[in-house]
C-alpha cells in the first residue's frame, strides 16, 4: 500500500481551492455544477448569475469526517478540514444518470511488468450477516443514481420539477405541511427503491447459488485448481444502497472524472461495469491546486485505492472505494454474482483498514475470473471438443499461453464483432486477468510451445498432466474410419504429412522384439504409415517387393509413435483415387518425381481401408464421455479408442502383390487436362478380396447369395448420380468417342446423348410422366436439342465463310450457349422437383451438358490464331507512363520484364501464342466511362484524376493516394501518365474477358501496371494504411464487366471467381466484389498473414514479426492487415499461410480448400490476380516459391477452369518485384565494382526508361539473376500454353 507524506505536498496558503476557472470555493461548499446537476428536468438550468449561498445542506457529509477529494487532502491534513474540488459538469452527470451502461465491451487489462501482490493477512472468521458500520452505513438515498425502470425515471423527473432554481434555494426549509408531505413522498419512494434493491439482492443470491453448483460441474479440474473454486462459496449478503446525487458528485470529484480533470483518455466513466470497477486502480493527481499556481511543477499521481487507503483512519474509513462499489453494484448489466461479491467485500468483517483494502482488491480481482460472473456476463466457460468457426472458439479453454513473459491459462471465450472473438486469460502467479484477441492467443500458444522446446525437463510427471488436459479431447474428423494424415518422426520423411492407419488401443504397442505392450503415454498414438518412401534403405526387411523404382523397394508398412497435436495430425479427406488431384498435390511437396508411384500407392491403400471401414465395419456408439473414460482407464488417447479394429484377415492381405498388379503411374494414360471429368481409378474392394477367400469362391465357384453389407448405413451411401450418368468415364470410352467423331458428320456424333448425361436425358424423356415430372425440363431438352442442331448446321457451312464471318459466327454460337446455360439454371431453380430427385444434381448435369456443347463449338469452329489452342498476352506501352519514385519496389521496368518473360514462353513467336501490344479505344472508353465507375466510387475517381492532372509533366514519384493529412501516400507514387496507364490496364482486362468468353482464345495474360488488387471502393479500403501501389482494380473491373447483362453492354455471365495468389491479401478486390455477399462472385485469396501475425504488438518477443509497407517502412503485421485473416461470408475464402508462403502450404490450400470450393461454386469464368511476390528471391522476403511452383499454381487453376467453365481463364499482373537492375548505377559517391550485373531486356526496355535503384535494394536484387520475376512470368505463361487445348 502506498501512502503520501504530507510534507512532500506544496504548502497550503489558503483555505479554499481554486477551480479550473479561477474561482474560489469555500471549504465544504457545493460548486454550482453540483447544484445544476440536480436540475436537469426538461431544460431547467441554473442561473449562474445568482448567488450561490452558504447553506450547510450544501456540504457533502459522511459521518462529518470523510475527505474524498484528493485536492482536499492537499490543502489540509486535519480531519476537520474538508474540501471538494469542482465535480463534473451537469451535462456529464445527466448523461450518467439517464443512459444505461453498455455491457458489450469487456475491458482489457495487461499485467504490469514485475508486479507481484503482497501476501494478504489471513482474515478473521466472519459471519455472513455482518455489515460494515461507520462511514459505510449510509443514509437512505434522496434520489436514485440511475434509473433502471420507467417508473424510477418518472420519480426522478417528478422530483426534479420541484427542485430549486438557485443556490440559495438549494435546500430551503419548507413549511411544516409541505415538509411532511415531501417526507412522505420521499420515504415512499425510498422504501420502494429499498424494496426493489432487497428483491434484486435476494434474486442475486438465489441465482448465484443456483449457478454455483451448475458452473462447478462445467469447469475443467485443472482450471478449478488454478482458480481455487473451493474458496468461492459466499454466504447471503444484504444489498447495497444506491448512490444519491450528492454521493455520485462526491465520487466523480474524488476520481477526478470529467472535463475538469482531462489528464488523459481514461478520465471518464466506462461503458461497462467491469471497466468502471477497474477505476479503483486509476491514477489521481493529489497536487492539482498547486499545479494551477505552478504550471511548471510535476503532478504527483497515485492509484485511487492507495490514496483512499492513505487517508483512512480506521477499518471502515474507505468511503471512496465503498462509493465506487455501490455505483458498480447498481449499474445495468452487472452480473448477479458480481453484485454478491461486491456486497460481501464491504460487509465482510475486517480487523484493520489494511485488511479491508486487501479484501476489496481481492474481490475486484476475483470478479474478473470468477466462473459464475463470467457465465452471467455472456462468456463461455466450458471447453468444446471441436473448433467453433475459423477461430476455434471455446476449444482453447484450458490451454496454457505465455503472456508478457508470464504463464497463464485460458478460462473463457466470448464472440466479438470487432475481432471475431476474445479469450480471457488468468495469470497462474496472482490470478490477474487479461483479454486476448485471436492473433494474441495464437502468439501466446506459440511462445509457450517455444519455451517448452527450449527448456526440456528430466521429468514430465507434473507438466504431463497439464499437457494431457489440454490435448485429451483432441480429435480429427474421420478418425472412426482409422485413416489420418500424420507427420512421421523419421527425419528422412522431410516432415511431410503422409497417410497412416491409427492402431486401436487393444492392438497395443510393438516393441523392438515384435511383442505388444500397452501405450506408454496418454499424449501419443501408434500409427502404421502406408507405403512410406523414406524407408527405401531398409529394402531387405521387405518380404516381397515387385517395385522397379528405388523409392518403392522398402517395407510397405512402417510403425511409428507420434505426439497428438494439430501440427502432427490432420484429417484424411480423399474418398476416391483421382490421379489428376494426386499429381497436382504431389507437385507442391518438393519431392523427386520418382516418389510419386509410392505416393499413389499410399493413397490407394488409405482409400481402400477407409472405404472398407465405412461400409463393412460397425462403429463405436459410445458417447464422448464414455470414450474419454475408456481412454483414461487404458492410459491412452481418445484417438486410439475411437480408431476401428480391422480384422486380422484384412491386415494380412498381400497388399504388395495387389499393388504390383495395378497400373504404374508411368503407364497411365495422358493427363485428362482439358476434360471436365476426373480420371478416377476404382477403389480396391477389400471386402470382395476377403470374400473370395471363402467357399464357394475359393473353389472357383460364384456364390448365389449377395455379400453381407449390413454395415452400409444410409449415411454412407453416395449422394451423387450413378457413374453411368456421366459419359466418357474411361479412357477406352474417350478413344471410342474420338474415333466416331473422326469418321465424319454422323447422327451419332451429334446425338444429344453425347452432351447430356443419361440422368438428364431421362428427365427430358420422362418429363410428361406424372409421377416423375419436373416442370420446365422438357422445354430445356428442346432448347439443348435445337442448340446442338444449330451448331451442326454452322459447322457444315463454316468452311465457306471468310475470316471475319467466322469470328462473328463463333462469338454468336458461344454466347448463345452461355445464355441458354444461365436460362436453364433459372428454370430448374424455380421448378417443382419430385421427391427423391436432387435439384443440385440436375443443375450440375445441366451445366456440364452446356459446357460440352461450348467445347464442341470451340473445337469445330477454331482456326489458326483463333479459338482452341490459342493463348494471348495483352499489353500496352501507355502503361509505361506510370513512373514511381526512386527506391520504390514497383519500378517501371516490371512491364518490360513481364513482356520479356512472356516472349520466352513463345508470345509473338508461336502463331498460337499471340502478343497484342495495343488496347483499342473502345475498350479504353468503356473502362473509363462505364466499368470503372461501377467498381470505384465517383469521389475516389475524381480525387485521383484531379491529383494526377495537377502533376507537372516533368515530375515523377508524386504521392497519389494520400489523404488531407498527407497520410497513406508513402508507397503509391506516380506521374502525369499514371491515370492513362491505370485506365488502359482496365481496358486490357476487359479485352481479355471478351477474347476468352467469345472463343478467340482459351486463356489470356494481361501484362499491365500499375497493379490493382489493393484499390477498393474508396481510398485505402478495409482500413489499410495505404493503397499498396494500386490505382484501379483490373480484376474486379473484369468480373463486373463479365457479369453485367448484355442489355447494359456486358457479357451476362452468372458467376465469376477471382483467385488471388499475390503474397498480400487483395483487400480492394474483396471490398468491391464481396463487401457483402453477392452470389455472382467468389473471391479466393491465398496470402501471407494470419491472426497470429497481424494486428498486435508484443514487446520482448524473440520472434517479433514485421511487415514492410509497400513503400519500405516497417510496422507490425503484414499489409494490408487483419482483413485477410478471416472469411466474412461464403462468397469469400481467405487462406492466410503464416509469415511466409511455402510451396507445401500453397499446394495443400489449393488442393484441399480452393479446388472443392471453386468446383462447388461452378463459375462461368475464372480470373487470376497473378502476383509473383511470393517468390523465394523477391525483395519483400515473404515467400518461398520457385518459378516452377507458380507454373504449378497456374496449372491447378486451369484444371479448375476446365472442370467448371471449359477452360475460360485469364490473369492480370499484380505484384512481383524481383527484377535485377537494368541500367548502370549513377550513384557516383558509392564505390563501383567490376562485378556489377545488369538484366538485359533488349528491345523490350524503352530507351527513355530509367531504372534508378538504391544501393541496398540492388544488393537484394542481385540474386534474382538466377531466378526472379521474369522467370515467374515465363512459367506462368508456359502453363497457360500447356493448358490451352480443350478436349
Q: What is this entry, summarized?
A:
With 1287 residues, the protein is an alpha/beta fold. It has 38 helices and 29 strands.
Describe, in plain words, how this protein is organized in 3D.
With 1287 residues, the protein is α/β, with parallel strands linked by helices. 37% of the residues lie in helices and 9% in strands. The protein has an 8-stranded parallel sheet, sandwiched between helices. Strands 14-13-10-9-15 form a 5-stranded antiparallel sheet, with helices on one face. Helix 34 (1067-1074) links the parallel strand 23 (1056-1060) and strand 24 (1081-1087). Helix 33 (1034-1043) packs parallel to helix 34 and helix 36 runs parallel beside helix 38. The longest helix has 43 residues, at 176-218. The protein is globular and about 110 Å long. The N terminus is likely disordered.
Topology:
Layout: E1 17-18, E2 24-25, H1 32-37, H2 70-75, H3 90-98, H4 150-161, H5 176-218, H6 221-227, H7 245-255, H8 273-277, E3 283-285, H9 288-293, E4 301-303, H10 304-310, H11 319-329, H12 336-347, H13 353-366, H14 371-376, E5 400-403, E6 406-414, E7 422-427, E8 433-436, H15 438-454, H16 461-471, E9 483-486, E10 498-502, E11 509-510, E12 516-517, E13 524-530, E14 557-563, E15 569-571, E16 577-578, H17 579-587, H18 596-616, H19 624-633, H20 638-642, H21 648-651, H22 655-660, E17 680-681, H23 686-691, H24 731-742, H25 758-765, H26 777-797, H27 803-829, H28 839-861, E18 871-874, H29 894-904, E19 913-916, H30 921-935, H31 938-949, E20 958-959, E21 973-974, H32 978-997, E22 1003-1006, H33 1034-1043, E23 1056-1060, H34 1067-1074, E24 1081-1087, E25 1106-1108, E26 1114-1116, E27 1132-1136, H35 1143-1161, E28 1165-1170, H36 1187-1205, E29 1209-1213, H37 1255-1261, H38 1269-1282
Parallel strand pairs: 18-19, 18-22, 22-29, 23-24, 23-28, 24-27, 28-29
Antiparallel strand pairs: 1-2, 3-4, 5-6, 6-7, 7-8, 9-10, 9-15, 10-13, 11-12, 13-14, 16-17, 20-21, 25-26
Helix pairs in contact: 5-12, 7-11, 11-12, 12-13, 17-35, 25-26, 26-27, 26-28, 27-28, 29-38, 30-32, 30-33, 32-33, 33-34, 35-36, 36-38
Keywords: Chromatin regulator, Hydrolase, Nucleus, Repressor, Transcription, Transcription regulation
EC number: 3.5.1.98
Domain Histone deacetylase: 890-1219
Amino acid at each position: 500500500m502506498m501512502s503520501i507524506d504530507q510534507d512532500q505536498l506544496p504548502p497550503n496558503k489558503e483555505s479554499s481551492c481554486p477551480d479550473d476557472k479561477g474561482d474560489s470555493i469555500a471549504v465544504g461548499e457545493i460548486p454550482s455544477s453540483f447544484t445544476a446537476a440536480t436540475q436537469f428536468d426538461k431544460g431547467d438550468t441554473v442561473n449562474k448569475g445568482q448567488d450561490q449561498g452558504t447553506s450547510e445542506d450544501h456540504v457533502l457529509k459522511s459521518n462529518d469526517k470523510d475527505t474524498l477529494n484528493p485536492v482536499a487532502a492537499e490543502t489540509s491534513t486535519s480531519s476537520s478540514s474538508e474540501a471538494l474540488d469542482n465535480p463534473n459538469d451537469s451535462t456529464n452527470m445527466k448523461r450518467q444518470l439517464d443512459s444505461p451502461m453498455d455491457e458489450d465491451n469487456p475491458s482489457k487489462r495487461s499485467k504490469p511488468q514485475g508486479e507481484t501482490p503482497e501476501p494478504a493477512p489471513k482474515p478473521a472468521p466472519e459471519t455472513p450477516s455482518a455489515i460494515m458500520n461507520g462511514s459505510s452505513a449510509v443514509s437512505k438515498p434522496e434520489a436514485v443514481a440511475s434509473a433502471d425502470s420507467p417508473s424510477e425515471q418518472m420519480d426522478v423527473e417528478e422530483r426534479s420539477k420541484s427542485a430549486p432554481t438557485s443556490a440559495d434555494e438549494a435546500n430551503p426549509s419548507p413549511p411544516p405541511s409541505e415538509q411532511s408531505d415531501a417526507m412522505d413522498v420521499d420515504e415512499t419512494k425510498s422504501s420502494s427503491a429499498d424494496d426493489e434493491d432487497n428483491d434484486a439482492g435476494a434474486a442475486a443470491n438465489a441465482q448465484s447459488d443456483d449457478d454455483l453448483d451448475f458452473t462447478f460441474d462445467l469447469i475443467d479440474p485443472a482450471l478449478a485448481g488454478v482458480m481455487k473454486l473451493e474458496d468461492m462459496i459466499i454466504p447471503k449478503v444484504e444489498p447495497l444502497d444506491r448512490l444519491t446525487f450528492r454521493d455520485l458528485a462526491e465520487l466523480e470529484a474524488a476520481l477526478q472524472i470529467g472535463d475538469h480533470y482531462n489528464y488523459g483518455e481514461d478520465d471518464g466513466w466506462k461503458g461497462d461495469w467491469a471497466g468502471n470497477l477497474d477505476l479503483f486502480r486509476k491514477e489521481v493527481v493529489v497536487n492539482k491546486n498547486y499545479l494551477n499556481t505552478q504550471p511548471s511543477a510535476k503532478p504527483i499521481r497515485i492509484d485511487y485505492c492507495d490514496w483512499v487507503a492513505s487517508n483512512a483512519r480506521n477499518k471502515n474509513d474507505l468511503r471512496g472505494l465503498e462509493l465506487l462499489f455501490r455505483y458498480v453494484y447498481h449499474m445495468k448489466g452487472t452480473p448477479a454474482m458480481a453484485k454478491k461479491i461486491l456486497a460481501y467485500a464491504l460487509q465482510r468483517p475486517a480487523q484493520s483498514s489494511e485488511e479491508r483494502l486487501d479484501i476489496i482488491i481481492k474481490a475486484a480481482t476475483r470478479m474478473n475470473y470468477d466462473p459464475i460472473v463470467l457465465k452471467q456476463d455472456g462468456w463461455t466457460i466450458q471447453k468444446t471438443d471441436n473448433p467453433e468457426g475459423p477461430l476455434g472458439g471455446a476449444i482453447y479453454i484450458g490451454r496454457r499461453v505465455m503472456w508478457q513473459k508470464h504463464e497463464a491459462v485460458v478460462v473463457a471465450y466470448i464472440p466479438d464483432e470487432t475481432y471475431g472473438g476474445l479469450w480471457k486469460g488468468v495469470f497462474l502467479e496472482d490470478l490477474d486477468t487479461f483479454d486476448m484477441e485471436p492473433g494474441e492467443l495464437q502468439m501466446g500458444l506459440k511462445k509457450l510451445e517455444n519455451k517448452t522446446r527450449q527448456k526440456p525437463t528430466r521429468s514430465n510427471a507434473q507438466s504431463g498432466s497439464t499437457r494431457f488436459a489440454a490435448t485429451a479431447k483432441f480429435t480429427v474428423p474421420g478418425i472412426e474410419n482409422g485413416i489420418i494424415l500424420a507427420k512421421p518422426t523419421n527425419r528422412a520423411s522431410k516432415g511431410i504429412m503422409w497417410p497412416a492407419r491409427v492402431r486401436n488401443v487393444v492392438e497395443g504397442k510393438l516393441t523392438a522384439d515384435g511383442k505388444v505392450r500397452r501405450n506408454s503415454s496418454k499424449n501419443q498414438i501408434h500409427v502404421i504409415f502406408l507405403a512410406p518412401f523414406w524407408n527405401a534403405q531398409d529394402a531387405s526387411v521387405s518380404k516381397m517387393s515387385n517395385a522397379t523404382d528405388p523409392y518403392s523397394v522398402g517395407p510397405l508398412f512402417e510403425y511409428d509413435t507420434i505426439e497428438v497435436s494439430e501440427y502432427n495430425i490432420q484429417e484424411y479427406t480423399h474418398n476416391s483415387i483421382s490421379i489428376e488431384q494426386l499429381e497436382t498435390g504431389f507437385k507442391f511437396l518438393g519431392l523427386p518425381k520418382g516418389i510419386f508411384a509410392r505416393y499413389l500407392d499410399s493413397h490407394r491403400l488409405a482409400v481402400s481401408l477407409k472405404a472398407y471401414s465405412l461400409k463393412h465395419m460397425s462403429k463405436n456408439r459410445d458417447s464422448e464421455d464414455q470414450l474419454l473414460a475408456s481412454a483414461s482407464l487404458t492410459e491412452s488417447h481418445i484417438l486410439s479408442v475411437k480408431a476401428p479394429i480391422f480384422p486380422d484377415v484384412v491386415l494380412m492381405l498381400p497388399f504388395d502383390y495387389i499393388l504390383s498388379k495395378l497400373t504404374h503411374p508411368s503407364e497411365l494414360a495422358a493427363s485428362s487436362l482439358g476434360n471436365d471429368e476426373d480420371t478416377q481409378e476404382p477403389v480396391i474392394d477389400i471386402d470382395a478380396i476377403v470374400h473370395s477367400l471363402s467357399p464357394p469362391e475359393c473353389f472357383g465357384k460364384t456364390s448365389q447369395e449377395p455379400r453381407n453389407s449390413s454395415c452400409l448405413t444410409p449415411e454412407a451411401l453416395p449422394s451423387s448420380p450413378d457413374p453411368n450418368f456421366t459419359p466418357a468415364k474411361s479412357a477406352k470410352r474417350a478413344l471410342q468417342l474420338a474415333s466416331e467423331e473422326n469418321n465424319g458428320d454422323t447422327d451419332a456424333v451429334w446425338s444429344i446423348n453425347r452432351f447430356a448425361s443419361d440422368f438428364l436425358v431421362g428427365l427430358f424423356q420422362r418429363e410428361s410422366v406424372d409421377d416423375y415430372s419436373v416442370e420446365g425440363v422438357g422445354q430445356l431438352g428442346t432448347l439443348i436439342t435445337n442448340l446442338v442442331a444449330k451448331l451442326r448446321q454452322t459447322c457444315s457451312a463454316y468452311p465457306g465463310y471468310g475470316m471475319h464471318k467466322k469470328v462473328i459466327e463463333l462469338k454468336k454460337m458461344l454466347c448463345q450457349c452461355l445464355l441458354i446455360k444461365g436460362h436453364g439454371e433459372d428454370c430448374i431453380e424455380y421448378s417443382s422437383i419430385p421427391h427423391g430427385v436432387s435439384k443440385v444434381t440436375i443443375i450440375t448435369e445441366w451445366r456440364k451438358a452446356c459446357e460440352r456443347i461450348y467445347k464442341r463449338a470451340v473445337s469445330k469452329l477454331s482456326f489458326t490464331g483463333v479459338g482452341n489452342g490459342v493463348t494471348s498476352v495483352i499489353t500496352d506501352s501507355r502503361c509505361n507512363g506510370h513512373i514511381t519514385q526512386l527506391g520504390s519496389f514497383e519500378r517501371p521496368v516490371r512491364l518490360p520484364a513481364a513482356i520479356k518473360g512472356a516472349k520466352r514462353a513463345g508470345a509473338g513467336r508461336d502463331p498460337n501464342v499471340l502478343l497484342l501490344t495495343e488496347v483499342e479505344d473502345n475498350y479504353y472508353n468503356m473502362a473509363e466511362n462505364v466499368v470503372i465507375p461501377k467498381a470505384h466510387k465517383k469521389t475516389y475517381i475524381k480525387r485521383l484524376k484531379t491529383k494526377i492532372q495537377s502533376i507537372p509533366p516533368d515530375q515523377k514519384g508524386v504521392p497519389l493516394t494520400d489523404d488531407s493529412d498527407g497520410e497513406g501516400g508513402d508507397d503509391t507514387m506516380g506521374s502525369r501518365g499514371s491515370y492513362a496507364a491505370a485506365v488502359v490496364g482496365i481496358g486490357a482486362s476487359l479485352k481479355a474477358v471478351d477474347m476468352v468468353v467469345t472463343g478467340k482464345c482459351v486463356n489470356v495474360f494481361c501484362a499491365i501496371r500499375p497493379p490493382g488488387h489493393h484499390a477498393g471502393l474508396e481510398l485505402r479500403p478495409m482500413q489499410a494504411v495505404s493503397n499498396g501501389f494500386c490505382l484501379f482494380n483490373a480484376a474486379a473491373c473484369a468480373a463486373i464487366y463479365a457479369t453485367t447483362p448484355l442489355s447494359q453492354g456486358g457479357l451476362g455471365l452468372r458467376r465469376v471467381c477471382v483467385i488471388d495468389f499475390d503474397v498480400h491479401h487483395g483487400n480492394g478486390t474483396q471490398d468491391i466484389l464481396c463487401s457483402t455477399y453477392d452470389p455472382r462472385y467468389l473471391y479466393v485469396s491465398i496470402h501471407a498473414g494470419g491472426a497470429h501475425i497481424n494486428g498486435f504488438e508484443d514487446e520482448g518477443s524473440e520472434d517479433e514479426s514485421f511487415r514492410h509497407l509497400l513503400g519500405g517502412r516497417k510496422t507490425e503485421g503484414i499489409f494490408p492487415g487483419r482483413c485477410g485473416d478471416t472469411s466474412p461470408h461464403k462468397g469469400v475464402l481467405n487462406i492466410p499461410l503464416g509469415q511466409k508462403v511455402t510451396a507445401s502450404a500453397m499446394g495443400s490450400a489449393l488442393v484441399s480448400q480452393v479446388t472443392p470450393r471453386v468446383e462447388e461454386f461452378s463459375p462461368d469464368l475464372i480470373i487470376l490476380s497473378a502476383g509473383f511476390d511470393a517468390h523465394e528471391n523477391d525483395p519483400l522476403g515473404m515467400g518461398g516459391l520457385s518459378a516452377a511452383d507458380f507454373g504449378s499454381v497456374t496449372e491447378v487453376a486451369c484444371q479448375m477452369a476446365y472442370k467448371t467453365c471449359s477452360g475460360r481463364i485469364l490473369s492480370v499482373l499484380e505484384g512481383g518485384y524481383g527484377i535485377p537492375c537494368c541500367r548502370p548505377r549513377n550513384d557516383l559517391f558509392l564505390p563501383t565494382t567490376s562485378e556489377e550485373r545488369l538484366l538485359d531486356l533488349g528491345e523490350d526496355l524503352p530507351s527513355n526508361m530509367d531504372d534508378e535503384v538504391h544501393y541496398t535494394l540492388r544488393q537484394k536484387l542481385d540474386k534474382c539473376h538466377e531466378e526472379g520475376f521474369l522467370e515467374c512470368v515465363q512459367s506462368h505463361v508456359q502453363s497457360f500454353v500447356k493448358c490451352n487445348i480443350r478436349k
